[in-house]
Amino acid sequence: MIEVNNIVKEFVSAKKYPGLKGAIKGLVSREKVVKRAVDDISFSIADGEIVGYIGSNGAGKSTTIKMMTGILNPTYGECLINGVNPCKNRKKNAQNIGVVFGQRTQLWWDLPLSESFTILKEIYKVSDEDYKERMEFLNNVLELNEFFDRPVRTLSLGQRMRADLGAALLHNPKVLYLDEPTIGLDLVVKDNIRNAIKEINEKYNTTVILTTHDIGDIEELCSRIIIIDEGKKIYDGSLEELKDTYGTKRKAYMEVKNMGAVKKTDLAEKLGVERDDCVVEFDDEKKNVCVTFDKRKLQVPQVVNAVMEITEMQDLKLQETDLADIVKEIYNHGFQAELG
Ligand SMILES: Nc1ncnc2c1ncn2[C@@H]1O[C@H](COP(=O)(O)OP(=O)(O)OP(=O)(O)O)[C@@H](O)[C@H]1O
Ligand SMILES: [Mg+2]
Question: Which domains does the chain have, with CATH numbers?
Fold first, then answer.
């Protein structure tokens, strides 16, 4: 369905110099700065997949989406969406895709939403019959009826996002691009949007590519994620695999009677592991000892027993590394870093 082959996007801008003199120098200088926003990215996505495309701010996500939708031309490489090159064949491609950019609306600001939909119906040549069926479905999942007659500019952010999603889906596209579709939404609307995406994917086998900074979106929707960093692809695989490989750390919070005694003990040595595999932190106020350990090397009972041999334990809480921690680590330290 989607083939992305070694795409690169370079943005060229004039070199800037500081100060007023610099500004004048900049006007006459021909020096250029080349910024590689997307650096040799390839992947393929099958029909009906929901793929999370994630990375820190400025990683190159939106730029990739723009190339896949035909808004930007790749500097090198090409994409094929359902066999169509989106840059060379924009019109044909448009029939296949729906796009939502969470940061700005694609709808006509001053027109009532209903008129935007009528225009889109004409643009995409949706038959009356299909239109009726589609609108019924979209109304069910997105509840557009509530504000269908109002100008887009009067809609709240959540309403506008639902409207945008509906508009992107009116022509029943095979591929749906969502660039931060839940940005700024409250938990209820977020949930509605996620459910709508799920339903559309299930009912029409729509392929979805989703960029987001909301880990909840990923956990709820995506079975596969692609992570990019500084324009390069650094991970492509299932969520489970990522968690298995990189979520190797566990935390045990133990409330103890005699903190001082634990402080005096070298727990890693006691357990016979490297210091990095058993890191101990103390919270004096809560009388908490927090041990972060590698679950491949130590089991919970070993850690708990070791502490109980030193002092009495009053409470125990365990915590797995969650996806948010893993992703944060990857953004901070790259993919090879030891994650916890
Ligand atoms: N038209 C442009 N001209 C010059 N540089 C650009 C242009 N568009 C994007 N960039 C740069 O390319 C890089 C990638 O931008 P992009 O918008 O793809 O990031 P992103 O991953 O979507 O980030 P965010 O999470 O903040 O939306 C950034 O450094 C950005 O400043
Ligand atoms: Mg972006």
Answer: 46-243 (3.40.50.300), 249-320 (3.30.70.100)
